[in-house]
Amino acid sequence: MDDEAIIELFWARDETAIKNADLKYGNRLYRLAMKFLCNREDAEESVNDTYLTAWKTIPPQKPQYLFAYLAKICRFTSFGKLDRKTAKKRQAEIVELTAELESCIPASSMETDIEGERIGHILDIFLAGLSEEKRLLFMRRYWYGDSIKDISEHYGIGESKVKVSLLRTRNALRKFLEKEGITV
Amino acid sequence: MKGKDLMNGLNFVEDQYVQEAEFGKLKKSNNIDYNMKGARLSMKKKSNWKAGGAIAACLAIAVFIGTAGLVNHLLDSEPSSPSQESEIVPMTDYLDIYYLSENGTIESKSIEVSYTAENIFNEWAALNGVSDVTLVECVYDNGGSEQQQGGMVEYTPGNYFKLNLTVSSKFAIYAESETGDLLVESLRRTFRDYLYYDEFNLFMKD
Questions:
Q1: CB A164 to CB B194 under 8 A?
Q2: Å between B175 CA and nearest CA of chain A
């Protein structure tokens, strides 16, 4: 079933919308949640919460990209679960990603509080200026939480190339954040 | 702002980027064709290597003198001639260094290396048993052009990247051996993982 038809089911308050969304994207969402939570039960719960949130928000929302819409909810929900759980083992993956991204933040802005939406808007501008290849690699690493090895295998390119690309993109992001006045 | 804020901020990026990263595929690069052409062209003209190399090296130097400042500005701390490296604090990261294995195939080994052209070349040379060959010059040119605008010089960056490596003439002994082609190929691959380029040229100089 195509995305438009699934969204129509949501709008018609037809509960098969969730079943169809799960059939189409359930595995992808589960994999995403597992990347951050590293726990089957938590990941399944996160995916179920995703469908529940989608049910509550469609309508009024009519997403252009259904998978992206669900994946965002799933990532957000998973992060929320991570915040509530403090087990070091479960946080190991995300700690690594966070540390890598921390290198992008200009030193003088470490203490500045900036809301997520504003950061998202700034990142949109930054991502739009990247080549498609760099953007894909960056998103796979930091949005989807893929390992370097996974990215390398997925795209059939060397791990070094992935690392070099990510390193350069992080350096470019740091410069971009400075230019955007994140230090204010 | 902390790294965690950036991770959370990513959740607010436009849906199109999320969708693209899940379903998009990398376009096949045409670098290999160009590069192979560049490398093999040099190998076929073995008898003219020294003379051709010297001319090419002169040209490379001329290109370097004309554009090095601007190119290096664009590249920030990326490769430069070895003589300029004292001004730069190089990054350190793992890089796949390619080498010719005993069974005649090209293999790679991930090595932590300080990211300068000279260091990477030295790692490659050591791994391939050609440590007596040195890197003379590394010129990375994006094909940009300068135009005089009144009293100002305007620089327009290009989008066709050439990597010209000049190595010491001792390399000729290895390059002319039976496995010379593969050796050049391993060098080309090593630098491909270091820099993105559309064309790879190898020169020799005394």
A1: yes
A2: 26
For strands B145-149 and B152-156, give the pairing: antiparallel
Q: Is B95 on the interface with A (CB under 8 A)?
A: yes
Q: What is the pLDDT of residue B88?
A: 46
Q: What is the complex's ipTM, to 2 decimals?
A: 0.87
Cβ neighbors of B82 (< 8 A, separation 6 or more) are B116, B117, B118, B135, B136, B137, B138
Amino acid at site B47:
S
Dihedral angle over CA of B47, B48, B53, B55, nearest 10: 160
Distance of CA A144 to the CA centre of its chain: 5
Tokens of B156: 């327009």
CA distances from B41 to A30, A31, B36, B49 (A): 51, 47, 8, 10
Count other Cβ atoms within 10 Å, centred on residue A79: 18
CA B47/CA B60 separation, integer angstroms: 20
Q: Does B89 touch chain A (CB under 8 A)?
A: no
Q: Which of A101, A160, A61 is nearest to B192 (CA)?
A: A160
**pLDDT for position A93:** 66
pLDDT tens digits for A106-133? 665 555 556 778 888 889 999 998 888 8
A99: nearest CB among B3, B16, B17: B3
Tokens coding B105:
């195939």
Q: Which tokens go with A103? A: 């290198």
Confidence of residue B55 (pLDDT cuts 50, 70, 90): very low
Q: Which residues of chain B make contact with A50, given a CB cutoff of 8 A?
A: none
Q: How many CA atoms within 13 Å lie on the side-chain side of A155?
A: 29
Q: Is A86 exposed, middle or buried (0-12, 13-18, 19+ CB in 10 A)?
A: exposed
Name the CA dihedral angle for B71, B75, B76, B78, rounded to a multiple of 10 degrees.
-110
Residue of A nearest to B74 (CA): A172
Please state the pTM of the whole predicted model.
0.54
H-state helical runs in A58-181: 66-84, 88-102, 116-128, 132-142, 148-155, 159-179
Instruction: Using an 8 Å CB-CB cutoff, list chain A residues near B2.
Output: 98, 102, 105, 110
